[in-house]
Amino acid sequence: MKATAIRNTCSSLRIPAAFPGSRVTGLLRRCPPVAPAIFRAASAAPSGGTKPKFLVNFGKPSSKYAGFECDRSVRYTLDFFIPREVIEKTKETMEALQKRNAAIQPSLAIIQAGEDDSLLEMNTKLARRIGLKVTQVCLEKECSEDEIVKEVLKLNEDPGVHGLYLHLPPASTTSRVLTALKPEKDVEGISDLSTGCLIRGDLSTGYVPPVISAVLELLDNNHVSLEGKTVLVLGGHGTLEVTLRCLIERNGMVAITSHWTSKNLKSEVCFSTVILNLSFPHFEGFNLLSPVMEADAIVILEAGNMDLPPNWVKPGAVVFSCDPTHNTGYLTAAYRMKNVVHSCTRWLQERQYQPWNLSSINLQPQTPVPSDIEISRAQTPKPVDQLAKEIGLLPEELEVYGRSKAKVRLSLLDRLQNQPDGKYVLVAGITPTPLGEGKSTVTIGLVQALSAHLKLNSFACLRQPSQGPTFGVKGGAAGGGYAQVIPMEEFNLHLTGDIHAITAANNLVAAAIDARILHESTQSDKRLGMDKTDPASLTPQEINAFVRLDLDPSRITWHRVVDTNDRFLRKITVGQASTEKGQSRETGFDIAVASEIMAILALADGLEDMKTRLARMVVGTSRGGQPVTAEDLGVSGALAVLMKDAIKPTLMQTLEGTPVFVHAGPFANIAHGNSSVLADKLALKLVGQDGFVVTEAGFGADIGMEKFFNIKCRASGLQPNVVVLVATVRALKMHGGGPNVSAGTPLPREYIDENLDLVAGGCRSNLRKQIQIARLFGVPVVVAVNVFKTDTQAELDLVCQIAKECGASDTVPCHHWAQGGRGCIELAHAVNAAATRSNNFQFLYNLQLPLVDKIRAIAQQVYGADDIELSPDAKAKIDYYNQQGHGSLPICMAKTHLSLSHMPEKKGAPTGFILPIRDVRASVGAGFIYPLVGTMSTMPGLPTRPCFYDIDLDPVTEEISGLF
């Protein structure tokens, strides 16, 4: 749209002094030309009758409502007609707003066709007095509908604009224009939605049009009781007439309508009526007084050239007109300003924390329990915008992706910055086995119990599944049974594309590295370019240092990534084409979720922090021994662009309609294994002070939980209230000495039949150790036993008994997989109780300790090792990182998840071993040092029979089969 002028103006307003009191003859010398007509009407009143009473609007500035009795013995005061009371009350409201928020300044935007400053001047005079701001947008006089809509939509999204006034020809105020106008900014009350709300009697969402506000308030200020009286609305049509009629009736009067051409006009007027005249029509020759008239109220909406016959007006009548062809000026502008301030008040109220109004979705569990995907498809999720509204999100804070998921904008943190956080719960587990422990399922079951059954606000925060496990061995991570996130297909496949954004950003860095090496090796310093004021003054050495990074190809640490388990990409050779001029080198691929960019996404606390972290990522070392960063490559700004949407958490829901944030997805064995800091922070604000945020750490407590405390909590500044430690009888049997199992083979009898000895062995080794690890950090522990149908009551009772002996605050069997939230109510009560207990949270180590000592603290206190053993490469790397100033970073151990030790086959709680550290690397952007223990791989491989064998798509229904 082409706007010819956009101005902000706030002129001063001076209210003229009131006319001194005088008799009617004095009035005739001072008033505008309409006054003689009024006086003639008054003098024509029959002797002994009640004299007509008039309220007159001349469209001029005034200090209060003017009124006078046409009795020559009565003194009166006449001011120019502006409602001082409205202005003063609006100003008081404005001052009260600014006491609560000094930075707020309500703003009115006027969109008009053509350049006419008279309207702007009139509105800004009042705006200056009240403390508002007025913006004028002048379009071409013959502007198109598209141009108007474009400007309306732009102002709709401007948080600094609280009211829109469309000063356009009637032909330009089309249905499309009115539909585009946001009702909350429609201070003229002209949109279809606003009109409908007013007609229905809902004054909480829309605004009364300024002209109608003036009519109703002037009637009220006339001190005439109109209860039960009849008001004739004359000469109007359209929504203004209908709205006025409805509001008159809601004020206790009877409203009828008529047109000037009505044959029954005279009889219709002859009701008990008051005549309302809000503008300045040409009433010369219009005798307003009639001795035979018995009317009490007439509202003239449009008069044009029509006159009421003099003998139709009764003595004692009050005369006004709302004819839009005449200038009602300052009167309606005053009510417009009142609506703008009201709009701003609503806007601020909406941005306060809102109590939840969550509607849960009923579950009807079946026996036997169907497959996960069948359960997911049997439940219809709520529209995500409905869910967002129920938990207090504003429409502008939501970016909807289809019907069931949406991104949530980080502006929510600014809006609720003063809102106290809810309670923070971490779900971890014992050392995992191929049988599965169900941390995600417990997380979902717990929040379903808290919100849908105990009516306590709760949020689940989960990681986004990687395509690698989904098509490999593990499957998805949406939970399972009647405790899962829906739609589970969308949750497990692509979601909102965050992992794809990470892949693109990571590989852009890789491409920048190889391109830089190629060009530096094949071009002169002059061709590489410089950005200095006086390049001629630089020496050859300075030029070389300026234009060259001089990356050492053998010391590049940055890998490309792909989100697929592809073992043959673990080591590759690049640059073998003849066009690369011999610049080949060995490198490799990692899985996408192992990228440092994924770790940054999970630890950043905002867009600026993420951009800073991306810039300081170290990608390699120069031949001179200096680290080379993404900022040195000039790629950090482009990375931020690729990641600008991925930084927003994705909102989804559980089977019972409770909210879930899905964000980030680093693996716990090769990264820190937790969902994002931002998702947790947003959720903690949304649930309120008495609510719960339940977040999950990857793998066992020795990996995911330890990194949650020492890395994530340091980055976020948040402290958990409770740890929920998930265990299963089957896994405890394996840790107690049970036989190994492999996928696709029948379970040995030990895992099907009752075996209390194996259960006790697993409890007193692995479960005890994991409880002790949690208590190292001073946080209460609740053990959740994820119940399977093969578990016996004696086995469950034994786990509960030993867990409490080992220091757990409580131990609860959970049946959420088969029953949903109802099967997790006991756990919800236990968590609620534990959250009220004393919490002595502490970190495992001080960041100022040497890197070696921090590694040793984790190995000995968490894993149970006797000591650590550093390879020569690891020692050299530690010395290098100390020289670079990275010695104060926390530690992120890359270790197998299948054992507390570095030996996957060692179950239970191994002791008496030395932990080998074969290499040490730095994720400077993410902010941690990660030692590699044993033979850890950052690129998983596919098994003999991957999950993708079972996955298929029906081309007719587009339904997915075989996913889980």
UniProtKB/TrEMBL annotation:
Pfam families per record: FTHFS, THF_DHG_CYH
Domain Tetrahydrofolate dehydrogenase/cyclohydrolase catalytic per the UniProt entry, residue ranges: 85-188
Metabolic or biological pathway, per its Swiss-Prot or TrEMBL entry: One-carbon metabolism; tetrahydrofolate interconversion
GO cellular component, one term: cytosol
EC number: 6.3.4.3
Organism domain of life: Eukaryota
Enzyme class name: ligase
The keyword ATP-binding is assigned to this record: yes
GO molecular function, one term: formate-tetrahydrofolate ligase activity
Any one biological process term the GO annotation gives: tetrahydrofolate interconversion
Keywords recorded for this protein, A-Z: ATP-binding, Ligase, Nucleotide-binding, One-carbon metabolism
Family: In the N-terminal section; belongs to the tetrahydrofolate dehydrogenase/cyclohydrolase family.
Subunit composition and interactions: Homodimer.
Name of the protein this chain belongs to: formate--tetrahydrofolate ligase
Lineage, opening ranks: Eukaryota, Metazoa, Chordata, Craniata, Vertebrata
